[in-house]
Sequence to fold (215 residues):
Amino acid sequence: MPDVRVHNLAISLDGFATGDGQALDTPFGHAGERLHEWMFATRFWHQMVGNPGGTVGADHAFAERHEPGIGAEIMGAGKFGPPGWQDDADWKGWWGPNPPFHTPTYVLTHRPRPSIEMEGGTTFHFLDATPAEALEQAREAADGRDVRIGGGPTVVRDFVAAGLVDHMHVAQVPIVLGRGVRLWDGLESLEETYDIEAVSTPSGVTHLTFTAKNR
Ligand SMILES: NC(=O)c1ccc[n+]([C@@H]2O[C@H](COP(=O)([O-])OP(=O)(O)OC[C@H]3O[C@@H](n4cnc5c(N)ncnc54)[C@H](OP(=O)(O)O)[C@@H]3O)[C@@H](O)[C@H]2O)c1
Fold:
C-alpha cells in the first residue's frame, strides 16, 4: 500500500505552524517568513523557484524528500487561500498559473467549487469530505504513488488523529510565536504509535520524523 506522507511542516518551538492574522499579504500571519527561512536557503527551494545555488547540507536533504514518489496532495482551505477566498470566484491559489504540485491536488473545504486545471499537471479538486473519504479519492488519483498531506496544521492534525499518516516530517524552528494555529493540540501520546527521531542541523532547526509503527 502506498504511503501517506507529510513533509517540511514547519512549526515554532511552541508548536505553531502558522501565525495569527492570516491575510492576502500575510499568508502566515504575524509569523511572516520566519518559519521557512531554513528552507529558503536550501537548493531544494532554489530549484523550486528557479534560482541557482542553495545549500546542500542536512536541511536540503530533509527538504527535498517533499517531492519524490508523490502522486497526489491533499490540503486544507486555509493553505489554498486567505480567509474569504471562497467568495472570490477567480481565486486559483497562491502559486500562479503553474503551481508546484504537478499532480491532482485535493482542497478540503466546506464550500466546494468545480475543479480547476492548471499548467504543469496540477488540477485542484475541491472536496467536502472526511479525511478518510478524501484520502480514498487521492489514492485512486495517485495511481500507486504516495499521497502527501500538504497542510496546514488543522488538516495535518486531523489526518494524524484519524490514524491515516504513515510518515511525517516536522521542522521545529527556534522561534516562539505565542499565537496562531498549533499542530499538536488534541494529539496525545503519538510516541505510542510512531517511532520518533530528532536531528538538529546547524541552522538551528530540529527535524522530527514520525514513522508509524504499523508500517
Ligand atoms: N508551517 C508550514 O509548514 C505550513 C504548511 C502549509 C500551510 N501553512 C499555513 O497554515 C495556514 C493554514 O492552516 P490552517 O490550519 O489554518 O488551515 P488548513 O489546515 O489549511 O485548512 C483548514 C480548513 O480546511 C477546511 N477543511 C478542513 N477539513 C475539512 C473537511 N474534512 N471537510 C471540509 N472542509 C475541511 C475548513 O475550511 P472551511 O470551513 O473554510 O471550508 C478548515 O477550516 C496558512 O497560514 C498556511 O500558510 C503552514
Remarks:
- The two ends are 10 Å apart (CA to CA).
- The mean pLDDT is 97.
